[in-house]
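Why does residue order matter? Because the sequence determines the fold. Keep that principle in mind as you read this record.
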Amino acid sequence: QVQLVESGGGLVQAGGSLRLSCAASGRTFSDYIMGWLRQAPGKEREFVAGISRGGTSTYYADSVKGRFTISRDNAKNTVILQMDSLKPEDTAVYYCAARAGLKITTVYDYWGQGTQVTVSS
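Structure:
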């Protein structure tokens, strides 16, 4: 298991940028596929972006492709979500997530407490 703590959420205007960080505990961070998911009130939690264990492969939801960038630093046990050109529909609680495995996936087993991202019109 891993423990995940997100930070960096806040209020931004449409078209702005925000950088979310996820700090992972433990010494097995590199064994996990990492990702970001988000959930708006009244909606199901949805996949946003994923990254392979070594950080060489990434995958994005169509809604954020070209605007968001996921990266990881296994030496520092961190994963980043850089969000650019934000839209009001990006407003949600964003969760850092992890899954033990070999292949990148949109399904995760663990996630953090979440950080609120609000994009104003």
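The CA atoms of residues 95 and 114 lie 4 Å apart.
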